[in-house]
TrEMBL record, chain A:
Family under the similarity heading: Belongs to the PMEI family.
Sorted UniProt keywords: Disulfide bond, Signal
GO molecular function: enzyme inhibitor activity
Protein name: Invertase/pectin methylesterase inhibitor domain superfamily
Species this chain originates from: Arabidopsis suecica
From TrEMBL, chain B:
Domain of life: Eukaryota
Biased composition annotated in UniProt, kind: Basic and acidic residues: 18-28
InterPro entries in alphabetical order: Beta-fructofuranosidase_N (IPR021792), ConA-like_dom_sf (IPR013320), Fructan_Metab_Enzymes (IPR050551), Glyco_hydro_32 (IPR001362), Glyco_hydro_32_AS (IPR018053), Glyco_hydro_32_C (IPR013189), Glyco_hydro_32_N (IPR013148), Glyco_hydro_beta-prop_sf (IPR023296)
This protein's record includes keyword Membrane: yes
EC number(s) from the headed UniProt entry: 3.2.1.26
GO MF term (any one): beta-fructofuranosidase activity
SUPFAM superfamilies: Arabinanase/levansucrase/invertase, Concanavalin A-like lectins/glucanases
Stated name of the protein: beta-fructofuranosidase
Spans through the membrane: 38-56
Domain Glycosyl hydrolase family 32 C-terminal: 433-628
Ranges for region Disordered: 1-28
Keywords: Glycoprotein, Glycosidase, Hydrolase, Membrane, Transmembrane, Transmembrane helix, Vacuole, Zymogen
Length: 163, 648
C-alpha cells in the first residue's frame, strides 16, 4: 500500500511537472535546458510568451551579450595591445551580430518567416567562434564567446520549433 | 499560430479543423481512478502542486529534462544550411578575408543585384519583347529584411538590365513586407500579379497588383488593387502560414484557379482557390494535396508537362498527354522537392504517380541536390518553354556578406521538361541563350588511368562552360562484374563515402574546378559508379566542397544524388563555373547540383582546372570541350539599351 502511494505521488509529480510551464516544455527540446530556463525566467515577458516570444527574448539576450562583449573588446585594446589584430577581427564579427544578425532575426521571427531568424541566430554562434579562433588558444574572451555559442544553440532550437 | 498549439498544455484551445493531432497527452490516468482513490489523489495533487511550485521557482534545480535532444541534430545532417561545424565548442580560426579575395567572389554571368541581399524569384514573365524578373530584395543591408520587389529585364534571360524597384511596402496590407508572388496572363493578354503582403499586424495576406501602364514594355510602375487584400488566412490556417500564391490556371469551367502552400501542424498542404476576377475567391474545402511530416510548404508551384513533347506548356494546359508537377519549398530543410502526378480538374486534387516519393519526402526528387531554394517556373510564350528560376543563397558568414556588401545570386534559368525516357523525373538544362557568352574553346580527348590527376590547360579557369562525356574502359567493367567479392552497394551516397577522396573500383572521376596549382583548394564535380542491384551499375553524381577553401567559417557540404543512366547512354556532365558558384548537370540535366564556394588561393590567375580519376580498377576516357565564358555585363538600364535586338 505504501509503495502504491509512493508511486502515485511520483506519477502525479511527473504529470504535474511535465505539464509544467511553457518555458520548461520549450526548454526541454533545446540542447541546454538549464541555460534556457534561467535566461527565459529572468525576463518578465517569459511567463506569458508563446514560442515566438520566447525566441525573441533569447535574441534580446544575444543582443545584450554582444554589446557586453564589444565593450570588453574595446577595453582590451589598451590592456592587451599585442592582441590588436585578433581584437579587430572580433570587433568586426561582433558588430555583424549586432547590426546584421540580431535585426534580421527579430524581423524574421516577428513576421513569421523563422528560417531567416534561424540564419541570423546560427551566424551569431559562428561569428563568436571565429572571433575566439583568432586568438589561437590564448583568448581573453573565452567565457563570453562560449556563452554566445551556447545561447545561439539554444535559441536556434527554439526558432526551429516555429518552422 | 498553428505551430505553437502542439506545445500548449491540453487545456488550451485545440484547432477544431486540424486533421492530425500530434500532441496526444495520455488522459487515461484521469479516467481510470476508482472513486475510492479520489480522496487520496486530491491530497496527493496538493502535494504535487506544492512540489511543482518549488521546482519551477528555482529554475536551476529542475531535474526533469535529462534528455534534451537538440532538434537541429537531424537537420544538420540533411540540410545544407545546417552544417555549421562551428556551432559547437570547436574553435574556428578566422580566415583573414580581405577585399581582394572577397571581390573575386562576385559572379560574372549570374543574376545578382548591384549590392545587398536578394532571395526568392518573383513573378517572372515575358511581355512585349522583354523577359521580366522580379526578386525579393533588401535595399538596406546584405541580410534578409525590409523586403521590396527588385526588378530587371532582359531580351535573352542572360543579359540583364536593372530597373527601379517595382513595389515597396507602402500600404497597411504589405507594410511589413512585399513578399513572393506570381504573374498570370489573362485571356486578353493583360497581366495580374498576386503577391503575399505582411500586414501592419504581421498577418500574411494575398494582394493583387497590375501594371500601371500596359503599353510600357518595361512595366516600370505597378498599381495595387484598392480592395486589397484579396485573400486572408482562412479558418484553421495560421496567420503566418499563408504565403506565395502561384500563377493561376484555367479550369474546364472557365474559372481561374490558384494554390497557396501552408501547413496544419506538421502536415504540409496546398490550399485551392477559384476566382473569375482575381478579386473575390472561393476556397475549396479539399486541398490540392497534402503530405504528413513535411512541415510548411513555401513557394508552391503547380504546372503541366508534356508526356511526349520537349516543349513547355502554358500553365492552363491539360489533357491525356499531360502530367502535372507539384513543387514545394520545404521550410524545415530548405530543400525544393517536386513530384509528378495526375491532376483532376473536376475536384481540384492531385495524386502522385509514386506516393513513396511524394512532395517533400526526404528521399524524393529535388530540382537540385545542392544549394537551391524558393524556385519558381513560368511559361515562356516567346519560345514555348517552361523556365525555372532558383534562389542560390550564400554559404559563408554574414560578416563576409556585410563586408563584401552583397548576398545571394540566382541560378542560370533552366528549361524544364519531363524526362521522356524515364517518365519518372524532370530534366533541366541551362537556357540555350547562355551559349552567347561562350568565347574561345578547347577540345580534349584524354584517357586517364586509375589514381591520376591531370591539369587541363585552358588559361583562365574562373568563368567556364564545360561539356564532357565519360566512358569507363570495358576490360575493367568485365573484371568488375566477374569479381564476386564485390558487394552490391545500395546505400551509397556522395556524403557517406568520404566524398571525392574515397576510392572505389569504378570511381570517383570527373573534374576538379576552382582548384589551385597544388590542389590545396579544389571543388571536384564527379561521377561515382558502383555495382547496384541485379549487377546493374549505379551512378551517383556529386560535388564535394569540403576542400573548396582553406577558410573554416564557411559551410562546405558534399552534395549529390543517384542519377539514372539508361542502357546505351554515355556518362555526360556539364559544368558552369562562375567565380563563387558552380552548377553541375548530369545526364543532360537528370540530376543538377548547385554549389557556393569561397576559395582563398584558387582565385584570379591562380585558378586551375583538373581532370581526375580516383578509381582503383578503372581507366576512364574523357571527351570534353571547355569554353571561356564572357561577362554578362549586367548593368542599370539606360536609354542606350532601348535598341537592343533580341538574340536568335
Amino acid at each position: 500500500m505504501m509503495m502504491m502511494m509512493m508511486m502515485k505521488v511520483m506519477m502525479m509529480v511527473t504529470v504535474m511537472v511535465s505539464e509544467g510551464s511553457i518555458i520548461e516544455q520549450t526548454c526541454k527540446e533545446t540542447p541546454d535546458f538549464n541555460l534556457c530556463v534561467s535566461l527565459l525566467n529572468s525576463d518578465p515577458r517569459g511567463s506569458s510568451a508563446d514560442t515566438s516570444g520566447l525566441a525573441l527574448i533569447l535574441i534580446d539576450k544575444i543582443k545584450g551579450l554582444t554589446t557586453k562583449t564589444l565593450n570588453e573588446i574595446n577595453g582590451l585594446y589598451k590592456k592587451r595591445p599585442e592582441l590588436k589584430r585578433a581584437l579587430d577581427e572580433c570587433s568586426r564579427r561582433y558588430k555583424t551580430i549586432l547590426n546584421a544578425d540580431v535585426p534580421e532575426a527579430i524581423e524574421a521571427i516577428s513576421k513569421g518567416v523563422p528560417k531567416f531568424g534561424e540564419d541570423g541566430v546560427i551566424d551569431a554562434g559562428v561569428e563568436a567562434s571565429v572571433c575566439e579562433g583568432g586568438f589561437k588558444g590564448k583568448s581573453p574572451l573565452t567565457s563570453l564567446t562560449k556563452s554566445m555559442q551556447k545561447i545561439s544553440n539554444v535559441t536556434r532550437a527554439i526558432v526551429r520549433m516555429l518552422l | 499560430m498553428a505551430s505553437t498549439e502542439a506545445l500548449l498544455p491540453v487545456t488550451s484551445l485545440q484547432d477544431p479543423l486540424s486533421e492530425s493531432r500530434s500532441d496526444q497527452i495520455p488522459e487515461t490516468r484521469r479516467r481510470r481512478p476508482i472513486k475510492v482513490h479520489l480522496a487520496v489523489y486530491s491530497g496527493l495533487l496538493l502535494i504535487a502542486l506544492y512540489v511543482t511550485l518549488i521546482v519551477t521557482h528555482d529554475g536551476s534545480k529542475a531535474e526533469i529534462a535529462t534528455e534534451s535532444r537538440p532538434r537541429m541534430a537531424g537537420v544538420s545532417e540533411k540540410s545544407n544550411d545546417g552544417v555549421w561545424i562551428s556551432s559547437d565548442d570547436r574553435k574556428v580560426e578566422a580566415f583573414p578575408w580581405n577585399n581582394t579575395i572577397l571581390s573575386w567572389q562576385r559572379t560574372a554571368f549570374h543574376f545578382q543585384p548591384e549590392k545587398n541581399w536578394m532571395n526568392d524569384p518573383n513573378g517572372p514573365l515575358f511581355y512585349k519583347g522583354w523577359y521580366h524578373f522580379f526578386y525579393q530584395y533588401n535595399p538596406n543591408a546584405a541580410v534578409w529584411g525590409d523586403i521590396v520587389w527588385g526588378h530587371a529585364v532582359s531580351k535573352d534571360l542572360i543579359h540583364w538590365l536593372y530597373l527601379p524597384i517595382a513595389m515597396v511596402p507602402d500600404q497597411w496590407y504589405d507594410a511589413n513586407g512585399v513578399w513572393t508572388g506570381s504573374a498570370t496572363f489573362l485571356d486578353d493578354g493583360s497581366i495580374v500579379m498576386l503577391y503575399t503582403g505582411s500586414t501592419d499586424e504581421f498577418v500574411q495576406v494575398q494582394n493583387l497588383a497590375y501594371p500601371e501602364d500596359p503599353s510600357d514594355p518595361l512595366l516600370l510602375k505597378w498599381v495595387k488593387f484598392s480592395g486589397n487584400p484579396v485573400l486572408v488566412p482562412p479558418p484553421g490556417i495560421g496567420a503566418k502560414d499563408f504565403r506565395d500564391p502561384t500563377t493561376a490556371w484555367k479550369t474546364s469551367s472557365g474559372k481561374w484557379r490558384i494554390t497557396i502552400g501552408s501547413k496544419i501542424n506538421r502536415t504540409g498542404i496546398s490550399l485551392i482557390y477559384d476566382t473569375t476576377d482575381f478579386k473575390t475567391y472561393e476556397k475549396h474545402e479539399t486541398l490540392l494535396h497534402q503530405v504528413p511530416n513535411t512541415g510548411m510548404w513555401e513557394c508552391v508551384d503547380f504546372y503541366p508537362v508534356s508526356k511526349t513533347q520537349l516543349n513547355g506548356l502554358d500553365t492552363s494546359v491539360n489533357g491525356p498527354d499531360v502530367k502535372h508537377v507539384i513543387k514545394a519549398s520545404m521550410d524545415d530543410t530548405r530543400i525544393d522537392h517536386y513530384a509528378i502526378g495526375t491532376y483532376d480538374d473536376s475536384n481540384a486534387t492531385w495524386v502522385p504517380d509514386n506516393p513513396s516519393i511524394d512532395v517533400g519526402i526526404s528521399t524524393g526528387l529535388r530540382y537540385d541536390y545542392g544549394k537551391y531554394y524558393a524556385s519558381k517556373t513560368f511559361y515562356d510564350q516567346n519560345k514555348g518553354r517552361r523556365i525555372l528560376w532558383g534562389w542560390i543563397g550564400e554559404s559563408d558568414s554574414e560578416a563576409a556578406d556585410v563586408q563584401k556588401g552583397w548576398s545571394s545570386v540566382q541560378g542560370i534559368p533552366r528549361t524544364v521538361v519531363l524526362d521522356t525516357r524515364t517518365h519518372k523525373n524532370l530534366v533541366q538544362w541551362p537556357v540555350e541563350e547562355i551559349k552567347s557568352l561562350r568565347l574561345s574553346s578547347k577540345k580534349f580527348d584524354m584517357t586517364i588511368g586509375p589514381g591520376t590527376v591531370v591539369p587541363v590547360d585552358v588559361g583562365s579557369a574562373t568563368q567556364l562552360d564545360i561539356e564532357a562525356e565519360f566512358e569507363i574502359k570495358t576490360d575493367d567493367l568485365k573484371l568488375f562484374f566477374d569479381d564476386d567479392s564485390v558487394e552490391a552497394d545500395n546505400k551509397f551516397s556522395c556524403e557517406t563515402n568520404g566524398g571525392s577522396t574515397a576510392r572505389g573500383a569504378l570511381g570517383p572521376f570527373g573534374f576538379s574546378v576552382l582548384a589551385d596549382e597544388g590542389l590545396s583548394e579544389q571543388t571536384p564535380v564527379y561521377f561515382y559508379v558502383t555495382k547496384g542491384k541485379h549487377s546493374k551499375l549505379n551512378t551517383v553524381f556529386c560535388t564535394d566542397t569540403s576542400r573548396s577553401t582553406l577558410a573554416n567559417d564557411v559551410v562546405k557540404p558534399i552534395y549529390g544524388s543517384f542519377v539514372p543512366v539508361l542502357k546505351g547512354e554515355k556518362l555526360t556532365m556539364r559544368i558552369l563555373v562562375d567565380h563563387s558558384i558552380v552548377e553541375g548537370f548530369a545526364q543532360g540535366g537528370r540530376s543538377c547540383i548547385t554549389s557556393r564556394v569561397y576559395p582563398t588561393k584558387a582565385i584570379y590567375g591562380a585558378t586551375k582546372l583538373f581532370l581526375f580519376n580516383n578509381a582503383i580498377d578503372a581507366t576512364v576516357t574523357a571527351s570534353f570541350t571547355v569554353w571561356q565564358m564572357n561577362n554578362a555585363f549586367i548593368h542599370p538600364y539606360s536609354s542606350d539599351d532601348l535598341g537592343v535586338p533580341s538574340s536568335t
